[in-house]
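Troubleshooting entry. Yesterday's outputs looked truncated, so today I'm pasting the complete records for two proteins to confirm everything comes through intact. If either block looks cut off, that's the bug. Protein one:
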Amino acid sequence: MLSNKGLLQKRQHIEQLRQNSSLSLVQADLVGQSILSSWQRSEQAQIPTERAAAPLINTQDELPNVLNKALTYCTAELKHIAEQSSMVVAVGDIGSTIIWTAASGKMRQAAERVHFVQGGQWREDLVGTNALALSLKTQQSSCVFSSEHYMSSIHDWACYAAPIIDPYSKQVLGVIDLSTTWNNHNSLGLLAAERCASIIQNALLECQRQHLFIRAFAIPQVLFNGKVLVLTPRQIEILTILALCPQGMNLENLHQALYGERKVSIGTLKAEMSQLREILGGLLGSRPYRLLATIEADFLQAEQALDAGYIESALKLCRGVFLVRTESPFLCAWRDCLESRLSEAIFKAQETDVLLKHLAYCPEAIDAVERLIELIPAGHPAHQVLLKYKEEQ
């Protein structure tokens, strides 16, 4: 742990580096590549220089997700950590919006001033470099110290963040951040953030004892309590329809959604449902047919990300075509709507690295190619490669 003098020197050194428009390789290495890249993205985002607090939205009316449910199991422990460590503890969703906080008396007012509270939007393109957004971006633990932050209003802070990973699906569900004043910076802060992330992950295990996770992009797969179920493509389609219709469906409507005008008997569908009930036990309700387990799905997460305007998160989730082989009229229509919304989001995206990653997983995404052509300067070698790629499609 650095002394007060050492911390002050560290802060002053970072401030000097921030003012330098071109850093040497040695200086860049001292800052760290993740912080340096974040500074560059923050500059490109054209954040108002007078911004001193994060934009604030109302999250009270949003439907609770699995992360909200897990927090009900561990809020007391997290509050205790905040109070004992003189920190503010915040949990953010996949789009860097804070959904829960607890603060010591020392940090509460400071957190309120900058909207480091429930509903605060800490996306990098809105407030610049911060640990919460950086941890989600890199999907690794992150520390942002003092003037490494983009907004000057939080230069007196030291923040430590760690991603929260679903123990079953292995998807990143959100992030936890521990923040204190810069002169209390401690190299153990990252370990504390990771410990808090593990507390929430254990709570996720507790509240998801009957948990169904559906993957529908690329290779379809269903996991029950973390174990892969052996299912036919038709059974995966049925579960996907029921996940999209949580209120349930009667036999006739489910048959129409699954088969449309194809000549398939009701008896065939009944047999499918009987086999699914054997696999899922009491987790498949009837009259109407509905799923009684905790449901998570990559396509539902992608839809929620688009609803919230989290374009990068949505693109990360949509790695491949949604149920590419399905002939279900209901699922084909839903896929068309999702792809339309995704295409609209792509043409609003500003970060080329995000679009290039999406293109790597979805080579047929011509909308990503067109947006990259718009974003990359004409003289750049990649511009010509993309033009040629587009002509070949």
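Protein two, checking that the full record survives here as well:
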Amino acid sequence: MIKKFLLPDLGEGLPDATIVEWYVKEGDTILLDQNLVSMETAKAVVDVPSPVSGKVLKLAGGPGDVIATGALLAEFEIDPNLPQRAEGQDTGHHHGPTHAAPAAPAAPAATAKAEPEDAGTVVGAMQVGNTVVQEAAIAVGGVKAVPAVRAMARKLGVDLTRVRPSGPDGTVTMDDVKRAAADGSAKLGATPASAPAATPAPAPVAAAPAQRSPLSQSGKPMRTQPPGVTAAGQPEQLKGVRRNMARVMADAHAKVVPTTLVDDADLHAWIGKQDITARLVRAIVAACKAVPALNAWFDGEALTRTLHPHVDIGIAVDTDDGLFVPALRNADMLDARGIREGINRLRAQVESRTIPASELTGYTISLSNFGMFAGRYATPVVVPPCVAIVGAGKLCHDVVAVIGGIEVHRRLPISLTFDHRACTGGEAARFLKALLDDLALPQ
């Protein structure tokens, strides 16, 4: 009996996923719920288990290929002599988002009961409950490592087979990979030191590539052709985080009516060295309390606005893979130390790709500290359902006119983009003033 296995929905209705690595090859025999393939989604690296026991007949694509949700992932020849899932038993496999019935009003807290999570959000046959399940290290090619470590190794160009493991039972850890990347001891494609150098065979002499020149052979200025006629580069398919980022940005562009206000925060009164990002978070909290209209969600179809009593700030984190926006929860309850520890934790989880998907959603307002790299002002993108994002530019020393003369002040450019459907210009201006006033305080 032949079984075609379609890529299930790996969470939150994502339309596709990218193959990281197969744990089997065509012709191998695999057991029920044994890990079949590691897939990268916009938010995590997920192991997809086999739905049957049997022989692998076909694998759809190789590492780096994008597979659409509901498309063929693998094909098996079922072995009736091996364990199989009982008829009608829940596998947790879903091949696309479903339309749920309207949710009933929440019960009062005093009578609420803890319900187990829906098994439909999990790939594979798993017990429903509140038990915490640790990610297991899988041995592939003689190396034991969890998928997140393998993803980091690929990103840093580290050959896992040459990394010295320090984890339990010879497991390669995230620190092992980062250490190998830092000292260059396990570069991909590098020749081991103990291997004798091979003598290369004489290669045929190839004609030297033509050198680019602004002049033609006749000495006249060279005319170029538009890129649509000839292109030296090759198109690169977006994958994983960057692919999802493209969708989110396009959706935001189509659904938001953005307007941007800019001004400069004067930091001349600051006492001693201070954490600029922590001060920005504190100032956003102060502004949200002064003008709650920007700490809100907006539903453009129903034309409803939800004001939030708490402040969860989405902190934009730039990576080689694309943009992540983890949420700094309850920022209005944190002091400067708590803010810094929370930001450091989120950044570490993003870099190691271990951040839970739940931490990448649900923020009430956003912060982009793009000035860490360059740029004074910007028009940051508001991502629905949020209605505002604060952008901090590059710290500058400006000549400022004061009573009796001029002074040089340290100033921080601030850009505020807001959805004009949900906020008035006056609300945005008052929000920006409250933010600037807090940043101007000595400490």
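Both blocks look complete. Sanity check on protein two: The mean pLDDT is 81.
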